[in-house]
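Duplicate of #3305? Posting structure anyway:
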């Protein structure tokens, strides 16, 4: 005797809609009606971060295609003893990485500086240097560009 076929499972009305894919890139959570700058489908925490992103894009275009850099804004990473961290930017190039942090006005207190140094130390344990840019320097986009070019060349492309 042949077994009766099992009934098909019931499906939701939106079964054809793909599940949202989780992403760590630009993982800026929105609170209420806050509006964050958005470019290239990426969300930034401030106008200063957006200005640095635009500078990084310019520097990226200056490089030859065979020695370009990848820019990851707000990519989350699990560190051994520091939990999950989301640096403002992770930049990869030449088989190396560097972290870029855009320091806002809230980062100038005594304890905040110590927290930043502690965070930088966690990245250094992974052999990843940190470049810090004060948000005031982003109001004139040409000001930090030369320094950023120099720092990226030193951290990503200079001989070890």
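Output from current build:
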């Amino acid at each position: 005797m042949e077994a009766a076929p099992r009934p098909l499972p019931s499906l939701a009305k939106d079964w054809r809609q793909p599940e949202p894919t989780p992403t760590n890139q630009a993982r800026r959570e929105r609170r209420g009606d806050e509006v964050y700058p958005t470019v290239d489908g990426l969300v930034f925490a401030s106008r200063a971060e957006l200005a640095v992103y635009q500078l990084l894009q310019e520097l990226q275009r200056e490089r030859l295609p065979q020695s370009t850099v990848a820019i990851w804004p707000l990519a989350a990473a699990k560190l051994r003893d520091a939990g999950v961290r989301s640096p403002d930017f992770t930049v990869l190039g030449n088989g190396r990485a560097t972290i870029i942090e855009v320091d806002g006005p809230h980062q100038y207190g005594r304890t905040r500086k110590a927290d930043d140094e502690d965070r930088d130390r966690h990245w250094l344990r992974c052999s990843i240097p940190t470049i810090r840019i004060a948000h005031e320097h982003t109001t004139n986009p040409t000001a930090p560009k030369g320094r950023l070019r120099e720092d990226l060349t030193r951290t990503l492309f200079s001989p070890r």
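Confirmed duplicate; merging threads. The chain is about 30% helix and 20% strand. The longest strand covers residues 96-103.
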